[in-house]
Amino acid sequence: MKYGKHLALFASLALLLSASAFARSKDQGKMQLTDPAEIGTTHLDPGSYKVEWNGAGKQVQIDILQHGKTVATAPAKLVEHATPSPYNAVVTRPGKNKIARVDEIDFSNRKEALVLQPGAMVRN
After folding, report:
1. Distance between CA 17 and CA 12 in Å, rounded?
2. What are phi and psi of 15, to 5 degrees?
3. What's the rounded Cα separation, in Å, for the pair 95 and 49?
4. pLDDT per residue as tens digits for the range 76-117
5. Using one digit for the tens of pLDDT, what is the confidence trace for 30-85?
6. Which sequence spans correspond to the domains of the chain?
7. Is the pLDDT score of 14 beyond 70?
8. CB atoms within 10 A of CB 49
9. Which of 1, 13, 112, 118 is deepest in the core (most CB within 10 A)?
């Protein structure tokens, strides 16, 4: 009887720990800017950033964080490419005042990419 209780407790604990290890409340990735860029009206200096997104389906909300603080929030479209990106990449296009605008964020070894929606409202 004692053995059965311990076995049941151990099995329950193992199941709980394995489920929590795979659970993620948000998807996330990293991006590196080598030059200044903008997301909406938010100016981003060169450096490392963490990108988190959540939402149902293809429309998501992204948060750009640096040093644990959110520096920009914007709507984006989650797209899936045919093959995984070989590295983290930020696709930009020329913007106003010769500062690049972020159009797409690709993540290393992942098929998912975030495409920022042109003209979308950005909070910071």
Report:
1. 9
2. -65, -45
3. 20
4. 999 999 999 999 999 999 887 888 999 999 999 999 999 997
5. 999 999 999 988 999 999 999 999 987 789 999 999 999 999 999 999 999 999 99
6. 27-116
7. no
8. 22
9. 112
